[in-house]
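Hi, here's the filled form for the chain we discussed.

Project: internal
Contact: R.S.
Residues: 343
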Amino acid sequence: MLSKFLNWISKDIAIDLGTANTLIYLKGKGIILAEPSVVAVKEDRRYKKVLAVGEEAKRMIGKTPGNIKAIRPLKDGVIADFEVTEAMIKYFIQKIYNRGYFLKPRVIISVPSGTTQVERRAVKESAEGAGAREVYLIEEPMASAIGAGLPITEPVANMIIDIGGGTTEIAVISLGGIVISNSVKIAGDKIDEAISQYIKRKYNLLIGEATAEHIKIKIGNVLPEEPYETIEIKGRDLVTGVPKTITISSKEIQEAIKEPVDLILQAIREVLEETPPELSADIVDKGIVLSGGGALLKNFDKLIAQETGLEVKIADNPLFCVAIGAGKALDEIDKLKEVMIEV
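And the returned structure, exactly as it came back:
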């Protein structure tokens, strides 16, 4: 009886704990926080002191003195630094509850489908350490499919591709379960990295993470057409050591990101090849839904359609699908408990 009362009055939250961004959904309110998964820490010999989290910390990347580091505590969709992840979750929870909450919330967190039991336990324990009363986990493709409005509990195939910052999640879902899935550690971050490496190789120009991401957002295109879009970028000349400005085109970026894009396409083909025939027939009828930040890379949906021969639709809120889906699962926790992961 007490637990029912606590569930009724507590402000439960769903967390999309992403490699690039963390989104938080508050029960009854929707998404109320979206900030970069970055923490700035000052390192002494004995301990790490958190100086800034989220947007403020991201602005410090590449600009900090030696004893301060702006770090991403998640790598490829999993926790790389347990202590800093816990501090980050704690900070976001306290920010929502205005630095004071008398009742610990129930929390649901999305995790990549390829994570191990050890990695899932680390996520659960970091949320518990940050002040959660109860912690549930949900696989990202499942949350994304719910957020995209797919009928996951019906006996039909729902194919979702969620391209995030650290991982690309590909899954075929039917009757409330994942029938076949593939989780590859190639997504937005690897695309940014490929852009940086290409510019370094071709122009002897060193650029930062933020610049590479800016290029991807502004002129990234997997099927560019003439006249090609261009952008001016600034970096450090590796030969002279002084700052330099160059102009780069969308055709060059297509070439730069070809390898990670091809690896994502290969992972999609592998899932389609392993899908049972009855469900394959459903996918031919219904097509594929694309979500995550990578869904916004220009013409990626068209390229996937070309390569698979299937219809590809971008979800209504691709950036927020996982958070919205985890939030909906939280709102209907009794009905959707079977889609949660046991840890």
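Let me know if anything looks off before we file it.
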